[in-house]
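Annex B. Sample input.
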Amino acid sequence: MSAFEVQSALLGINHGARTSVRLVNPEQIDGALADQIRDELREFAHLGGFGIRPQDTPWFGAALRTADQAREACDLAVRLSTRLLPLLAHQAGRAAAETGLSAPRDYRGCVTQIRLHAAVAQTLTVLAPDVYGADPARLAAAAGDGAGLGLRERRALRKQATALVVAVPVPPREELALALNQATAQLALWEQLRADDGLPRPAAGLAQLQELAADCDRQLTALREFIPLAGEVEGQLTALAADQETAWRLPRLYELAGHFAALGLGALLDELARLQAGPDLAAASFDHAWYASVLDQIRVRDPAYAAHRGDALDEIAGEFRVRDVEHLAANRARVRRAWADRLAEAGDQHPMQARVIRKQAALRRRHLPLRRLLDQSGDVLFALKPCWAMSPLMVSQVLPEARLFDVVIFDEASQIVPADAIPSIMRGHQIVVAGDDRQLPPTSFFRQLTDGRSPRRTTTRAWCRSAPDSSRSWTRSARCCRPRRWPGTIAAVMSAWWRSLTRASTAAR
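Annex B, continued. Sample output.
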């Protein structure tokens, strides 16, 4: 690309997409690869790659590189949140109610109670259940070094501890002391968790409960290989199961990010992520970074071009844009000024007409008909209201037969027959016609109906030909000839026609 092409491309980029990031090797990117990068950046943005945040999804930071890993992680999250953990909580709660403990409130509480039950069951293979009511802490001290105990008391406690042993053969004194210390810790934890005054005892079905807990732990460990889980896992698992779409998008996001990194776009991706860029902004920012990097390469190879100052042209172009906007904004004031000058000139040249208009404006009723008002004060009235909007019928009834307007504009021209448009055309110097040439023209069906020999229709035509000059008599005659009954849809059309004629007569008066 030439320097001119690069600069032209840079001028076409939106100001909001300009970035200070430069690419390391822009010459390695040709037109085809640039198109591919733009498409991939748009895809990356559509997948949420630039806007994803830790608070947006529980899958943030998950190491899901392939679709198989995404499927496995989703299956684990769904299985744990909908089946295994609720089942574990139910069975652990039943075991707690059976042994007098408080119901566990979460997965950690379930695991703690299950481990406590398992430890109690292990202790009861060595010591009798009465050990928990015989102050196992003193027994452990006596079985140990006996610190703080007298000789006689220590011997009595050791004898008592030995009597509580149910294991065969009797363990050595060091193992006995260890078992008594464990019983002491189990009793302390039991007292924290219990709901009654009962002593530690194992729950029924402990083996199945341990197997279920081990299964939950294995699957949680497998899930932790993809995403870290800490603290209260139930809520995290529920959120993960509810947001599986993000998990399925992550492999493609990792693939695109790896491709971008291989092309040296890491700094640009960081900038776009900071801006939470959308698809269009991401593609435009890449264009700016690429073209600007190419332009830097040209400056390195051509010192004369690098020393050229283009700010002067930019200033001229910027000033022209500002003045152009100001000129457009000032057009409204110029139009208002020209209208005010013309109105003042017309009022000075035709004071009687201006007096008539002021008098009519002050009246609350009994205004002059518009046709008479035009005859008496047309010059001032057209200076006051230079733009008129009328139907072809009103043009013939109200405006005098003269070229009064600079431009006559027809809107929806496909709905106006040429015969109706002639009175409007003859009153203007120029014509602007706006319409849809593919729209159906007005139908002549009802005009053909009026060509029949029905006495009712004959009366209507006779009224049209012999209408009186007086607007009051014209209205009275029209009301006398008003059609009463018409079949089907013709009635609706003719009623609308009648209302338009009545409004026209009212405006003429």
